[in-house]
Amino acid sequence: MSKTNESLMQRRTAAVPRGVGQIHPIFADRAENATVTDVEGREFIDFAGGIAVLNTGHLHPKIIAAVQEQLTKLSHTCFQVLAYEPYVEVCEQVAARVPGDFAKKTLLVTTGSEAVENAVKIARAATGRAGVIAFTGGYHGRTMMTLSLTGKVAPYSAGMGLMPGGVYRAQYPCELHGVSVDDAMASIERIFKNDAEPRDIAAIIIEPVQGEGGFYVAPKPFMQRLRALCDQHGILLIADEVQTGAGRTGTFFAMEQMGVAADLTTFAKSIAGGFPLAGVCGKAEYMDAIAPGGLGGTYAGSPIACAAALAVMQVFDEENLLERSKAVGERLVSGLKEIQAKHKTIGDVRALGSMIAVELFEDGDLHKPNAALTGQIVAKARDKGLILLSCGTYGNVLRVLVPVTAPDAQLDKGLAIIAECFDELA
C-alpha cells in the first residue's frame, strides 16, 4: 500500500502528542535546494526553509560531501571526553565572524534553546547577578528558562504554570505599532524603578530582528542606546541570533548592521545546514567565567554537525551567499510591494536582507490584525505548491525564509503564487 499524507497523519495523531504542532498536513519524502517533494510525489517551493535552518538549501552538495567524509572517521566521542579538531575549528571560525573587536571564545551545544540557556548561565556567572531583561514579542525557545524569556504565552507556555522568575519584560521598539525608541528605553528605566535595580540584572537579551514576534527590525539607534545602557550598569548584552544568523539578513550576523557588538551572541539554525548545532560566542573573559564541567553536553558540538557547519561557512564564502541573500531580499520585497499596492489589507512589507515579512490588517487598519486571512493565505499557497509560514504576536504576519540559494525563477514563481492567493482571498 502506497503511503499518503492522510494515512501518515493518522499514524502521527496516534503516536505523537498533540503539543507537537504541525503547520502543513504534509509528509516530506525528499528535497533539493528550495524544492520539497512529499510522499505522494508532489513538489512544493519551500519558502519556510525549516524555519530559517536551510539558508544554504536542502542537501547542498558540499555540505553532504563534508558529512559523508566525517562519517568515515568518527560520529561521536563526546567532546568533553575525547576532543576533535572540527569542534575547535568551528569555534575559531564563528569567533572570527561574530562582531566585536575583542578576544572571543565559543561554546558549542545542540539547540537554540540550549544556546540561550547557556548564555544566561554565562552572564550570571560573569556578573554575579541573576536578573534578565527580555522584550515583548521575543522568542528564545521552549525550555523552562527560555520560556520565561519568550514574550508569548499561547501556545508556548499555556497551561504550564508560571515560568522561572527573575525575568523582566521591556517593550521592543516598533514604529509601525507606535512604540518609539524612546518608549522602549523608558520601559527599561521603569523596570529599574519598579522591579529590579540595575545591579541585580545580569543581562539584557534581544533579537536584532524578532523572529516569531513578527520580523521587526531593531532600530540602529536603539541598539546603540541599549549598548550604552549596558556599559553604564555593567550589564551584559546578549544578541539572540539563532534565526538571524548564518547570513539570513545579508551579513553573517545581523549585529554587523547595528553599529555595536554584543557581549554574548547565540547562534543555531542555519549554521550547520540542517544538522543540529548551536552555540554561544562572546568575550573571552565572560566565556571563561564558568569553571570546567559547568558547560557542555553529551551531543554538544557533534563531529558530524561540526563538519556540516564548516562546509556551510565555506559555501557562504565561495558562493558569495551574503550578497545573494541581499539580492533575494530585494527581489522578493519588490514583488511583494507590487502585491501590496493592489491590496490594502497588506499594511507593511519589511525585510533585513532575505528575512522578509508581510503584515496583514483588516482593511488596512493597523489596530485590526488579520490573522484569519493570514492563515487562509498560508493554506491557499500550500494548495498551489508553495510552503509559507506565519508568525507575529497576533498571528497576522506572513514570513519568508526561502533558501538564499533558490534560483530567481523559483522566487518569481513563489511570488506569483502569493499574488494569486491575495487576488482570490483578499
Nutshell version of this structure?
The protein is 38% helix and 17% strand. It is α/β, with parallel strands linked by helices.
Could you outline the blueprint of secondary structure elements for this entry?
Elements: H1 5-15, E1 28-32, E2 35-38, E3 43-46, H2 49-52, H3 61-71, H4 85-97, E4 104-109, H5 112-127, E5 131-135, H6 144-149, E6 167-170, H7 181-194, E7 201-206, H8 220-233, E8 236-240, E9 264-267, E10 278-283, H9 284-287, H10 303-318, H11 321-342, E11 346-352, E12 355-360, H12 371-383, E13 386-387, E14 389-391, E15 397-400, H13 408-425
Parallel strand pairs: 3-13, 5-6, 5-7, 7-8, 8-9
Antiparallel strand pairs: 1-2, 2-3, 4-10, 9-10, 11-12, 12-15, 14-15
Helix pairs in contact: 3-10, 4-10, 7-8, 11-13, 12-13
Structure characterization notes:
The protein is an alpha/beta fold and 426 residues long. The chain has two domains: 5-59 and 320-425, Aspartate Aminotransferase, domain 1, CATH 3.90.1150; 74-318, 3-Layer(aba) Sandwich (Aspartate Aminotransferase, domain 2), CATH 3.40.640. Helix content is 38%, strand content 17%. It contains 13 helices and 15 strands. The chain has a seven-stranded mixed beta sheet with strand order 4-10-9-8-7-5-6, with helices on both faces. A four-stranded mixed beta sheet has the order 1-2-3-13. A hairpin with a 5-residue loop joins β14 (389-391) and β15 (397-400). α3 (61-71) packs antiparallel against α10 (303-318), α7 (181-194) runs parallel beside α8 and α12 packs across α13 (408-425). The longest helix has 22 residues, at 321-342. The chain starts with a helix and ends with a helix. The mean pLDDT is 97.
